[in-house]
Structures are given as C-alpha cells and as structure tokens.
C-alpha cells in the first residue's frame, strides 16, 4: 500500500496529464466521497469529474513541479506549481498550496489555495472551473 505522500504525488502526476483527465484515472486515487475546497467553492466527486472534463477540453499540456511535500499521518501538504498550455497556445502558471486527507488508500478531501502567477485572468479559476452546460 502506498503512503499518503506517495498517493498524493502519484495522483497529481497522473491527473496533470491531459490524456489521463478522466473518471477511470480519478477512481484510482480519489474516494467517491471526495470533496475539493478551492477558489471559494466546494466540489463533490461528480463536480470534480466535471472539472476534469472541462480541463481536458481546454488544456493541451500541464507540467507539475512539486516544490515541497510533507505528511503527518493521513494528511499531506503540498506546495506545487502547474504550468498550463491551452489548446489555443496561451499559457499560465499557477502556484498551489494544498492539504489532502487520505483514508484507506484514497484521497478523501483537498483544501486548496491557488495563485495565478502568470497568464490571463480567466486562468485564475482553473483549479475549480467547469463547463457552463
């Protein structure tokens, strides 16, 4: 069984590949009871999957750089950067501080604060964006 740090690191690495932004990949790492608290919003698991679908429709490439990671029991804290290239070629860089809670080999929650370092103002909410449909 993976440690909570390994689980979070692997989840971030896998899900930041646009071809892996899907329900099957998410199910490997996230509990169906998962909640993500980001950008003043709380996403349940279904909304998180809709968020992944939105990212897949908008993003050509993402690059993860974990600056720091630490754990205490089932809690994992990360400080990471994500460089994003959208399909139309525009780019953005976000810096993220996140606290993950892991239970029984799955991520159950994430409390995330992200800051847009570079990019269009619309990219500020890439951490929680979903399609309007």
UniProtKB/TrEMBL annotation:
A UniProt-annotated Pfam family: SnoaL_2
Signal peptide location: none
Stored Gene3D superfamilies: 3.10.450.50
Domain SnoaL-like intervals: 21-108
Protein name: SnoaL-like domain-containing protein
Species whose genome carries this gene: Terasakiispira papahanaumokuakeensis
Lineage start: Bacteria, Pseudomonadati, Pseudomonadota, Gammaproteobacteria, Oceanospirillales
